[in-house]
Every structure is written in structure tokens, then in C-alpha cells.
């Protein structure tokens, strides 16, 4: 079992903070009028492919953003739980699927679809929508896909490139040197 290091703890804190600051300044736009969410922080949902610590970090970041914006208890519980489930499923996809395009497509579906199913429910529970569940589902699927695939996929390739170069903060070991086994498996994808 892999040890949870200080580096991983710091990285988790940075990820949670990034999610929060990429969401919080947008205010109500991040929560979607008629289900159209302006939430670029959703690009960070590709991080579980690289960092297990991003799973709880995305949960915390979503919780903090929702808390700072002062929305309902439903936003502060169901929203972060949806992020947690999606991050865990994305992480598992990265472990099970090695083909990069397939991995990105399948892994990206989880943050898109989990949020598309859960967020309209939050809208209904809070009475913040006049549109129907399925309309909100469709609009959230579209906007989530824009952030997850449109920003998240380039983020994935940028981090993969930085890891291949051995940039310490993006690597799992202390020095940033790649292990030969990891370097070989990276080049196959």
C-alpha cells in the first residue's frame, strides 16, 4: 500500500484550493442558471488519473466553494459527494484502462454524468429551477463536457508531459526522477 506523503498532502491542499478559487469568484454563474454552469474548476476532475490525493481534494474544494457561496445544505452535501464519486470512478478508470484516448473518454464521462444526474436533483430540492429535471440534465451534460473535455484533456496532456520531464511537483517520488517502469509504460500510451 502506498504511503500518504507530505508531498501528496500539499498537492491535495493545492488542488482543493484551486477548485475553490476557480469556482468561488464566479458566484451564481458557477451554479448554473437553467443548468448552464460556468465552472472551469471541473477541468481538475482529470487529476485522479495522476494523483489519488485529488479524490478527497476535489471533494473538499467543491465543499468549500459551495460553503463560501452560501448555498443550501443540499449544495454543500450532494455536490461534493457527486464530485467524490466521480473522482473515485475516474481514478479507477485510470487504473483499469491503459489506452489514453479511451481512458480519457471513459474517465471524463463520470464527472460529466454524475454531476448531470445529481445537480438537477439539487435544483429541485432547493426550488431553484423552473425547468424540468431532464432539461437541466441535458444542459449540465453539455456544460460539464465543455469543462471536463475542453479544459481537462489539455490539462491531462500538460501534466503527463511535465511528469515525463521529471518535474518534481508532478511526480510521485521525492526527487522527481521517473522510475524506469513508469517511464516505459508512459511511452506506450
Short characterization:
This protein is an all-alpha fold. It is built from six helices and no strands.
Oligomer: single chain
Helix-strand makeup class: mainly alpha
The strand count comes to 0
Q: What overall form do the CA principal axes indicate?
A: globular
Q: Please report the first level of CATH classification, the CATH class.
A: Mainly Alpha
Number of helices, counting only DSSP H or I runs of 4 residues or more: 6
Distance linking N and C termini: 25 Å
Percent strand equals: under 5%
Describe the structure.
Helices cover 66% and strands 0% of the residues. The chain has one domain (6-188): Orthogonal Bundle (Arp2/3 complex 21 kDa subunit ARPC3), CATH 1.10.1760. With 189 residues, it is mainly α. The relative contact order is 0.14.
Q: What secondary-structure arrangement, pairings included, does this model have?
A:
Blueprint: H1 6-23, H2 54-68, H3 73-96, H4 100-126, H5 133-164, H6 180-188
Helix pairs in contact: 1-2, 2-3, 3-4, 4-5
Summary tags:
single chain, 189 residues, mainly alpha, Arp2/3 complex 21 kDa subunit ARPC3, 6 helices, 66% helix, globular
Amino acid at each position: 500500500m502506498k504511503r500518504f506523503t507530505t508531498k501528496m498532502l500539499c498537492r491535495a491542499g493545492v488542488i482543493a484550493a484551486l477548485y475553490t478559487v476557480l469556482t468561488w469568484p464566479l458566484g451564481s454563474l458557477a451554479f448554473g442558471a437553467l443548468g448552464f454552469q460556468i465552472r472551469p474548476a471541473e477541468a481538475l476532475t482529470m487529476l485522479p488519473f495522476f494523483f489519488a490525493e485529488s479524490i478527497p481534494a476535489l471533494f473538499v474544494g467543491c465543499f468549500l466553494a459551495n460553503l463560501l457561496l452560501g448555498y443550501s445544505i443540499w449544495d454543500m452535501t450532494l455536490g461534493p459527494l457527486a464530485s467524490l464519486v466521480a473522482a473515485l470512478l475516474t481514478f479507477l478508470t485510470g487504473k483499469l484502462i491503459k489506452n489514453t484516448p479511451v481512458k480519457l473518454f471513459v474517465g471524463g464521462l463520470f464527472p460529466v454524468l454524475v454531476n448531470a444526474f445529481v445537480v438537477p436533483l439539487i435544483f429541485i430540492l432547493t426550488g431553484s429551477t423552473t425547468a424540468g429535471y431532464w432539461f437541466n440534465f441535458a444542459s449540465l451534460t453539455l456544460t460539464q463536457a465543455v469543462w471536463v473535455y475542453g479544459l481537462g484533456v489539455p490539462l491531462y496532456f500538460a501534466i503527463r508531459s511535465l511528469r515525463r520531464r521529471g518535474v518534481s511537483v508532478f511526480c510521485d517520488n521525492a526527487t522527481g526522477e521517473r522510475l524506469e517502469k513508469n517511464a516505459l509504460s508512459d511511452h506506450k500510451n
